[in-house]
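New here. Invent one.

***
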Amino acid sequence: MTLPSVRKAIFPAAGLGTRFLPVTKAQPKEMLPLVDKPTIQYGVEEAIASGIEQVIMVTGGGKRAIVDHFDRSLELEHYLEQRGKSDLLHILSEVDDLSNQVDITYIQQKEPLGLGHAVWTARRLVEGEACAVLLADDVILSENQPVLKQLIDAHHMTGATVLAVRRVPRNEVSRYGIIATGGSKGGIHEIVDIVEKPPTADAPSDLAALGRYVLLPAVFAELDRAEPGAGKEIQLTDAIKRTIGRQPVVGLEFEGDYYDTGTVPGYLRANLMLAMKREGLRDELAPLLRELLEASPEPR
């Protein structure tokens, strides 16, 4: 049986961004730039390249900047036109074109009750359909096929809920949701359990779930009856876990470069890595980085 297309993608963007205070007091963390583009734009571009038709932004208070970014700014366009800034107008047109390629809908999460609750908030917009979830903090760039498209293809092959997974060092497993696997075929692993942020000694594997999902409707049924879990929040992984045994759940070891921008060190690393890949920036940055390393005192 041919499965329907995955047409909708949820972007949970209601978090308070407390790790980046004070800058996130007035600016959504999803709008923090990676070089010259906000982190959330990378995810929207990935969704479009994966065939998504509707993006559902789950936002909270103080997130107006996200709406404004994907809307046209006629005043700014006029200003640039009057001054002959055609190169900058082209950059603006590329952003504007994103909202022409996909419908963007905004819905508010009224309370910060966790990732699972944010996804559940969009339930009426995806009712009865498999849908994607993308976390803007996790920027994943692939030179070949977008990571979300890899997950959608795995969903069509297996009929399963699909999690993007990657092997992480054993000393870092306590930072992630870690999957326990049954059978494996290529890069697709049957998931028999998910443990959220386990102690190193208790981790069932080194395969971590990283910020991309394709969810079957059964997950939303579990979110409907969910109780707060780790951190006193409603956890998406708990709802997925409760579908195991009744619905197929698999992890896909994806291909692509992964950048965790959810912490200050990860965010700074992502900026440096992407800047060093940018034509015109690498030649300027490489000597500066060498100078900084030579000038830095030894850590105490």
